[in-house]
């Protein structure tokens, strides 16, 4: 008997993709080095029976560490759960004296990298959700 598929949810759409708000993911520990750079640590739930056993009985956990350079630190510090990607790009242009196109490209790549590592999630503002603004 074939397995029933869950009905696919329609992905939310927005008019302006730069209107999304990057937010720090839960469970990310942040430490600032003496030189001002940021070090991130993220713990992950163990996958597999052996790892779950080790986690439960001896406290073993899987962690990833991420050291941010000066630009990464600046970007990370702008992620406050209120600023949109567009606003962060404007701040990058001012702070680093780069073109808007370069800041846009770098921001997209960097946000993708942070999302892949489960360090950042994107929130769609309520006024933008659904693609209509009536």
Descriptive report:
This protein is an alpha+beta fold and 134 residues long. The chain has one domain: Outer Surface Protein A, domain 3 (Alpha-Beta Complex). The protein is 36% helix and 19% strand. It is built from four helices and five strands; from the N terminus they run βββαβαααβ. It has a three-stranded antiparallel sheet with strand order 2-3-4, covered by helices on one side. It has a two-stranded antiparallel sheet with strand order 1-5. A hairpin with a 5-residue loop joins strand 2 and strand 3. Helix 3 (85-96) crosses helix 4 (100-116). The N and C termini lie far apart (46 Å).
* Overall pLDDT metric: 85
CATH top level label: Alpha Beta
Radius of gyration using CA atoms only: 19 Å
Shape descriptor reads flat
Q: What is the N-to-C order of secondary-structure elements (H for helix, E for strand)?
A: EEEHEHHHE
Number of domains: 1
- For the biggest β-sheet, the strand order reads 2-3-4
Number of strands: 5
**Fraction of helical residues:** 25-40%
Number of helices: 4
- Head-to-tail CA distance between termini: 46 Å
**Level-2 CATH architecture:** Alpha-Beta Complex
- Uncertain runs: none
Give me the secondary-structure category.
Answer: alpha+beta
Assess the beta-strand content as a share of residues: 15-25%
CATH fold naming: Outer Surface Protein A, domain 3
Main pleated sheet? 3 strands, antiparallel
